[in-house]
Amino acid sequence: ICRLPCSFITPEVIEATCQCLLAQAEQGERVGIDLKQIEKLVIEEFGRCLTQIIDCAAKTRNSKLKPEFV
Q: Please, which domain of life does this record's source organism belong to (predicted)?
């Protein structure tokens, strides 16, 4: 059974991603980084989050494809 990619984007994953993005923005504001740099940091963090989601999906898919010997 192959799961659809969207099945990995659960409400919990969305919430965790948003928390990471907000944390980046808040940290940038605390240290006084300009708005353009904060935007860059948030976008980079979003990329890291997407990479983790994709990696998790790939690992799950690969583990389903491996034959199991009993």
A: Eukaryota
Return the DSSP state at 3.
P
Spatial neighbors of 29 by CB under 8 A, at least 6 apart, are 38
pLDDT in tens, 26-48: 999 999 999 999 999 999 999 99
pTM of the model: 0.76
Distance CA 37, CA 43 (A): 10
Rounded distance, CA 65 to CA 37, Å? 42
Which residues are within 8 A (CB) of 17 and not within 5 positions of it... i.e. 6 or more apart? Answer: 46, 49
